Amino acid sequence: MMITLAGGRQVEDYANTECPVCGEEIHHAVVCRKIDANICDTHCRYCRHYMKVTQKCSYAAERKNPALAMPDFKY
Ligand SMILES: [Zn+2]
Predict the structure, then answer these.
(1) How many angstroms separate the alpha carbon of residue 1 from the centre of ligand 1?
(2) 75 within domain boundaries
(3) Domain residues for 8?
(4) Is 31 among the domain residues?
(5) Is the model's pLDDT at 7 over the cut of 80?
(6) What is the CA(54)–ligand 1 centre distance, in A?
(7) How far apart are CA 25 and CA 55, in angstroms?
(8) How far, in Å, is the centroid of ligand 1 from the Cα of 65?
(9) Is the pLDDT of residue 55 over 80?
(10) Cα–chain-centroid distance for residue 43?
(11) What is the CA(37)–ligand 1 centre distance, in A?
């Protein structure tokens, strides 16, 4: 399924309704490129890749430049 982002860009959505991080059913889903699935938005906010200032995920940039990489989710 394709979803449209705020900027009009279309991205592929994932089909999972169960969150691979906590194992619960997802209520507010976000697309996580790191896990490659939908996850709860709560995990996204606490992920090291989430940048509070820009509210964006730094995962793509870190994948290109592994020196920027940081540890995984904290629960
Ligand atoms: Zn979850």
Answers:
(1) 20
(2) no
(3) 2-68
(4) yes
(5) no
(6) 22
(7) 24
(8) 27
(9) yes
(10) 8
(11) 11
